[in-house]
UniProtKB/TrEMBL annotation:
GO terms for biological process: cholesterol biosynthetic process. It comes from Muntiacus reevesi. It catalyses: 5alpha-cholest-8,14-dien-3beta-ol + NADPH + H(+) = 5alpha-cholest-8-en-3beta-ol + NADP(+); 4,4-dimethyl-5alpha-cholesta-8,24-dien-3beta-ol + NADP(+) = 4,4-dimethyl-5alpha-cholesta-8,14,24-trien-3beta-ol + NADPH + H(+); 4,4-dimethyl-8,14-cholestadien-3beta-ol + NADPH + H(+) = 4,4-dimethyl-5alpha-cholest-8-en-3beta-ol + NADP(+). GO terms for molecular function: Delta14-sterol reductase activity. It is found in: Endomembrane system; Endoplasmic reticulum membrane; Microsome membrane. InterPro entries: ERG24_DHCR-like (IPR001171), Sterol_reductase_CS (IPR018083). Pfam families: ERG4_ERG24 (PF01222). The lineage of its organism: Eukaryota, Metazoa, Chordata, Craniata, Vertebrata. This is Delta(14)-sterol reductase TM7SF2. Its EC number is 1.3.1.70. Belongs to the ERG4/ERG24 family.
Amino acid sequence: MASPQGSRAPLEFGGPLGAAALMLLLPVTMFHLLLVARSGPARLLGPPPYLPGLEELWSPWALLLCLTWLGLQAALYLLPARKVAEGQELKDKSRLRYPINGFQALMLTALLVGLGVSAGLPLSALPEILLPLAFAATLIAFIFSLLLYLKALVAPASALAPGGNSGNLIYDFFLGRELNPRICSFDFKYFCELRPGLIGWVLINLALLMQEAELRGSPSLAMWLVNGFQLLYVGDALWYEEAVLTTMDIIHDGFGFMLAFGDLAWVPFTYSLQAQFLLYHPQPLGWPLASFICLINAVGYYIFRGANSQKNTFRKNPSDPRVADLETISTATGRRLLVSGWWGMVRHPNYLGDLIMALAWSLPCGVFHLLPYFYLLYFTALLVHREDRDERQCLQKYGLAWREYCRRVPYRIVPYVY
Ligand SMILES: NC(=O)C1=CN([C@@H]2O[C@H](COP(=O)(O)OP(=O)(O)OC[C@H]3O[C@@H](n4cnc5c(N)ncnc54)[C@H](OP(=O)(O)O)[C@@H]3O)[C@@H](O)[C@H]2O)C=CC1
Ligand SMILES: CC(C)CCC[C@@H](C)[C@H]1CC=C2C3=C(CC[C@@]21C)[C@@]1(C)CC[C@H](O)C[C@@H]1CC3
């Protein structure tokens, strides 16, 4: 089995054992959340209300619906784009090209769904089939990861990712072997990272809102807030789609089970947990508290967007007047690191903003259940781990300059805390 620099790349995620555990634990957690969200006590840490049989999980219609959704998003991806962006330089010095039409895909999906609903499409029935849909998405992710693994067997060594080529089948299947698997210009990882899962997430939220309106006459204020906040988040990700080309998922990680399952199943079915919870456990929320929660979300978004835009502007053009006055450290690679502005406060200000928003998404669900705070807990763990991985990659890339940055900006995510 080809292992370009696999023997040198340190194993992450606890190696093959950790990868195997995660492959089991992630789907189990997702189904647990789906089941407890609709149960009376909605206990995150308690047992699920019952164990569903295969007849409740498996539905050919759900599979067909998932495949149709993927087909629709793939067709929208292939439509002419307002811009074609170039990715980071690859090992063979080439750069891949990516269509920037994610926001257009979101708008066209909204139009199609709007037309469908006005023609009688029963969108509000979607929450009833979340379980078989999640099962179908998991099945698709497994089969897709297997195909990606097989495709990587015939890929040239230069196309393989630095991490997922250890020679251990389970570990490599989980992390992904090929960096940018494509058929012609269709980039599977880039497509999955931003389209079917993220747009699917807001569609599920909308369906939950519509079902709540049918059940109770109108959607609750809490449901409006959760829908609005998460739509803003997804709209932002698609509006600034080009920024995803510099994330570690695109430039470092292979495309395997972790991202395929994460993008296609985990995001739509667990990130919509707050809206699922609210449908079955309505929460009273007055305007004063709602305004305060909006303020928290706005502060989080301000930090998240400010930090991401500052770095992206700087990376695109360091002499842009918006960032030209910021203090920087030079590195041996020729690239500079920001040490003032947002990136002078903590080393990952964008994560801080993201976490503040995560809190605002849970607060409309009240404080008497832990379940809607699952996203905040999971996301904290994800970002702490991600921050650690990114630091190791930056230390490797920038060496002494990175150490100097860490000395000048000692906190990672939360000022004076962490
Ligand atoms: N909702 C979700 O599930 C998730 C959301 N996210 C969000 O996605 C966004 C992107 O996150 P992610 O890709 O992890 O990381 P970042 O956008 O923070 O990118 C990290 C990279 O930024 C560059 N960098 C770091 N410090 C500096 C500095 N001081 N000056 C200039 N460049 C610097 C380095 O790359 P280089 O020097 O090569 O440019 C580093 O590798 C974040 O807002 C995050 O919160 C991420 C994961 C999951
Ligand atoms: C649960 C698993 C162990 C890991 C799954 C991780 C994925 C769900 C996330 C990995 C990086 C992601 C990013 C986003 C969504 C979640 C995943 C796919 C964003 C697209 C979210 C919106 C932001 O504006 C950009 C993010 C980039 C990374």
